[in-house]
Description:
The complex is a heterodimer of chains A (231) and B (183).
Chain A: E1 4-9, E2 12-17, H1 22-28, E3 52-55, E4 58-61, E5 72-74, H2 78-94, H3 109-116, E6 133-134, E7 140-143, H4 152-156, E8 166-169, E9 176-179, H5 181-185, H6 189-198, E10 204-206
Parallel strand pairs in A: 1-5
Antiparallel strand pairs in A: 1-2, 3-4, 3-5, 6-7, 7-10, 8-9
Chain B: E1 5-10, H1 16-22, H2 27-34, E2 36-37, E3 52-58, E4 61-63, H3 64-76, E5 77-83, H4 85-89, H5 101-111, E6 133-138, E7 148-150, H6 157-169
Amino acid sequence: xxxxxxxxxxxxxxxxxxxxxxxxxxxxxxxxxxxxxxxxxxxxxxxxxxxxxxxxxxxxxxxxxxxxxxxxxxxxxxxxxxxxxxxxxxxxxxxxxxxxxxxxxxxxxxxxxxxxxxxxxxxxxxxxxxxxxxxxxxxxxxxxxxxxxxxxxxxxxxxxxxxxxxxxxxxxxxxxxxxxxxxxxxxxxxxxxxxxxxxxxxxxxxxxxxxxxxxxxxxxxxxxxxxxxxx
Amino acid sequence: xxxxxxxxxxxxxxxxxxxxxxxxxxxxxxxxxxxxxxxxxxxxxxxxxxxxxxxxxxxxxxxxxxxxxxxxxxxxxxxxxxxxxxxxxxxxxxxxxxxxxxxxxxxxxxxxxxxxxxxxxxxxxxxxxxxxxxxxxxxxxxxxxxxxxxxxxxxxxxxxxxxxxxxxxxxxxxxxxxxxxxx
Lengths: 231, 183
């Protein structure tokens, strides 16, 4: 039998199997820790930092830190939530996120987090970088304006030989997620649909389809992201 | 006690936010009881005739005239509110922002499919009477201090109503999840 350990999140007594990541442990205790780059079933990488929690006075990412016995975790505090909100605001000013003109508006996880944290305006200056829309592939569009480089597509979408369809290209602030032209041209319907699903924003879109869900029926129209959790 | 005075303006916007203000339906009658309108497209008062309590700004700043009007509002309004995505982040007019202004003008007046060959002397509008275009479309809070932000494209009538009544009554604003939307 697996080792069961005790820990607390914001003072609430929790239990989980030893060694699992804090994000998963919180989920099993019905506690919401917001996350963005993390995708269930894919190895976590801790890059977006939105799931950051505080333990022992230090910020650590909940998706990559294993839970330990007796751990005291701070999650839903003003300080941590403001830090999370600032990351969301940075993502909004860093790319070109024109929500009114985006097909994924209402179903977008970045936007949903902004709603959850009541972002009325980012505290940072808008950058308006020049980014391209890559429309060379038969099944999908890759809009670089909206990409947040979470690598969810890179980590998830592999062909039958295990080759990655998406990959990073470039360095630093100019880094882009590119589509392999050969693998992109052979993308199956199923894999294309999966790529669109794993993208948390509107950066990977289906071709010849747009605004599929009417306003009012979209994922985050009525309930904030994370509403399925009790705490 | 005199009524609070409201002024409104549309800068680089589509008037959609003003339409949403009118979309409070019959509550517009309550609003007129509660407040007095000064400079605004709603009553067509062109210039400030007194200091105002609340200024509502729709649209971002795409040219020198927008900046002038925005500064005029800041000087004449105690509280200034950006309402709508264009005022807050530039909105659709800001689609041009990543592209250099020279390229935008050349596309619009020289090279675009509807103008190519019809502007033989290659003139770009450059008359003193025409407001000068800015290098990009600026959110209002990057030009002057803005006190409050009401997101949405347009902000819902409910959000505008809640914000105005909260400001006028001094009560805390009612912000249900469904009224804050960016689209």
